Structures are given as C-alpha cells and as structure tokens.
Amino acid sequence: MQSASRKRPPAKTIGEVPAVAALAAHAKALDAMDRTLRQCLPDPLRRQCCLADLRAGRLVFLASSPVWAAKLRFHQTALLAEARKIAGVPIGKFAVKVAPLPPVPPEQIRRRPLSHAAADHLKAAAHSVADPELRAAYLRLASLAE
C-alpha cells in the first residue's frame, strides 16, 4: 500500500498559484503605470507621490503630506487622460490619500574586491604587531581577498 504523500501531486511554487500570480501581475502593471504617470508631474512632486491603485475606474495616488496631495490634485486631469491611454479602460475618478510613501531600497554599493597584494600587506602588518586583537583584525581584513 502506498503512502498518502506519494499520491499527492508535487507542490507548486508560490509564483505558480493563480491568485498570487494574478496579484504579482497587477503589482507589476501598477508599477509600470506609476513610473509613466509620474513622468507627467514636476520633479519635486514626482518624488512625493506614487500610484497606489487602479480599480473600478478609480485612480488612487498616495502623497506624503496634505500639501503634496493638494498639489497633485491640480494635475488630476492630465493624469487621468494619460492613465486612460495606458490602461485602455475608462477611468473617471481620481483620489489622493495621504500616507507615508513606501521606502525605496537603497542601491547596493559594489565594493571593489581586496587585491591579493593588499591582503599580503595586511598579513605582514598583522605579523608585525604585538596586540592580539589588532593582529586578528588585520587577518580578518586580509581574509576578504581569499
């Protein structure tokens, strides 16, 4: 007799689950639309708002403060027209909500690798010092090249 685990089909990855795949596709489309729509805005305003949602003919933006929300409302006609072109669906309502904007992850700083010559100098410095903690620190740094 086979065990129950052998009869089950293999588990799907999270991206293969239809509901999650649809959510990811919606988020990707909103992100692309956000980048396009914010190009219609002046630079200071562009940095203080973002597209939050487009659903049931309603375009929703987030602004970082009430002042930026008011300034964003002045551009609603242009934003609605551009969103209609992009989405290809009728969009008649515009809303702005005030909320802190999601943080933008910082770009990863690519550090230059430590050369083997620098590692050799660090090892030589480690062997020339009497302090064991400093010696260990030099050797840890030198190990980054290896």
What does it look like?
With 146 residues, the chain is α+β, with helices and mostly antiparallel strands. It has 2 domains: 15-98, GMP Synthetase, Chain A, domain 3, CATH 3.30.300; 113-146, no CATH class. Helices cover 51% and strands 13% of the residues. It contains 7 helices and 3 strands; from the N terminus they run αααββααβαα. It has a 3-stranded mixed β-sheet with strand order 1-2-3. Helix 6 (116-128) packs antiparallel against helix 7 (132-143). The two termini are 54 Å apart.
Distance between the termini: 54 Å
CATH topology of the largest domain: the name is GMP Synthetase, Chain A, domain 3
What series of H and E elements makes up the topology?
HHHEEHHEHH
Q: Which sequence of strands runs across the widest sheet?
A: 1-2-3
The total count of helices amounts to: 7
Which residues sit in consecutive blocks of at least 5 with pLDDT less than 50? none
Taking Cα atoms only, what radius of gyration do you get, to the nearest Å?
27 Å
Quaternary structure of the protein: single chain
| CATH architecture verdict of the largest domain | 2-Layer Sandwich
